[in-house]
């Protein structure tokens, strides 16, 4: 097998795996997608590239992470993939939401007190029991923890989005609006931005948009259609 053929084969396996796991499947993929997702996130948090070394410099909040920026993103990638698998949500979509919600900053605080990388609303009944949301002293301690205590935040956000999908008849655009506003189809621009960010993340590691990938992977696309 030539080098080009081998690369194409590996790429097709990765695409098939990622598309399949975005369907409601609790089984962990055979191909570990976390290095790819971490690499994509590392690219997206870069704010400058050193011309001499070619090394990228991440955004300030990631540079000052107690465990180091790269390790924090490794932790985040695992949280996103695990939560996605448990709830039938594409982890690349969750990562895109985290970028749009908080810039991947676990200590960002929204205009009405939203918290965590996925900006859980403190008055949301499904979010207010999350310790990172309700316990300020705990949040302070999380500054020195690898992953900044974001596993529960990501898990709950994935649960909320999965519930939104159920309420919105499986329509992802409507469900994203529900995540953002509490009602199906609310804030259509939010859904557009999230899906665009997901494509940007995938493009950063050469995967291309979900729509382009689905053209060459027919069975997972059919499975998604049946569930919707």
Describe this protein with a few key phrases:
228 residues; mainly alpha; Lysozyme; two-stranded antiparallel ribbon; disordered C terminus
The strand count comes to 2
Would you list the SSEs in sequence order as H and E?
HHEEHHHHHHHHHH
Strand order of the largest sheet: 1-2
The computed structural class is: mainly alpha
Major sheet size, sense and barrel closure: 2 strands, antiparallel
Mean pLDDT: 83
Describe it:
By secondary structure, the chain is mainly alpha-helical. It has one domain (3-227): Lysozyme (Orthogonal Bundle), CATH 1.10.530. The chain is built from 12 helices and 2 strands; from the N terminus they run ααββαααααααααα. Helix 4 crosses helix 5, helix 4 runs parallel beside helix 8 (151-167) and helix 5 (91-102) crosses helix 10. The longest helix has 19 residues, at 3-21. Mean pLDDT is 83; it is low at 1-30 and 215-228.
């Amino acid at each position: 097998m030539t080098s080009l053929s081998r690369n194409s084969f590996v790429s097709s396996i990765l695409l098939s795996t990622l598309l399949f796991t975005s369907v409601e499947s609790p089984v962990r993929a055979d191909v570990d997608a976390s290095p790819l997702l971490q690499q994509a996130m590392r690219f997206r948090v870069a704010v400058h590239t050193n011309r001499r070394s070619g090394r990228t410099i991440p955004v300030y909040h990631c540079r000052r992470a107690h465990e180091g920026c790269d390790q924090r993103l490794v932790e985040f990638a695992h949280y996103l993939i695990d939560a996605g698998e448990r709830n039938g949500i594409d982890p690349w979509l969750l990562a895109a939401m985290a970028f749009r919600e908080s810039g991947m900053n676990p200590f960002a605080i929204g205009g009405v007190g939203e918290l965590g990388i996925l900006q859980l609303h403190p008055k949301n009944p499904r979010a207010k029991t999350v310790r990172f949301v309700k316990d300020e002293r705990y949040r302070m301690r999380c500054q020195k923890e690898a992953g900044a205590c974001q596993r529960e935040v990501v898990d709950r956000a994935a649960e909320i989005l999965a519930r939104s999908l159920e309420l919105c008849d499986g329509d992802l655009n409507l469900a994203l609006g529900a995540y953002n506003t509490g009602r199906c189809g609310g804030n259509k621009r939010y859904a557009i931005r999230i899906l665009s960010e997901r494509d940007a993340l995938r493009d950063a590691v050469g995967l291309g948009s979900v729509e382009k990938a689905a053209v060459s992977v027919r069975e997972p696309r059919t499975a998604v259609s049946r569930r919707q």
